[in-house]
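Moderator note: this is an archived Q&A kept for reference. The question asked for a predicted structure of one protein chain; the sequence and the answer are reproduced below.
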Amino acid sequence: MVLEGRALRYGHVVWIDHRRVTLTHARRLVDDEVSGFNWGYHGAGPQLLALAILLEVGIDEMRAVKLHRYFARDILQPIPTGTDWRLELDVRTWAYDVERAHDAGLV
């Protein structure tokens, strides 16, 4: 799948395979008062985006909540803040691999 992000002056937009990612579902699962999502740093904005992406690709809520901090750390934090980006990544395979590594005590 293709993930794309655009850093706009008044907020950011992210798509997965040309479908816009929304925060509605992710916001219901976290207590943070984050105004929007972001990337390029360790914080609530990238973590909210990570959760939204995981949910958008069909990962169930419990797994998405468990994995979203890893996704933010591994995938979103390295992207420079304020830049547009494009990644080809099978998010479901990434999630499976991280869970296996976690279960083996490697994460």
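Archived answer notes: The chain has a mean pLDDT of 92.
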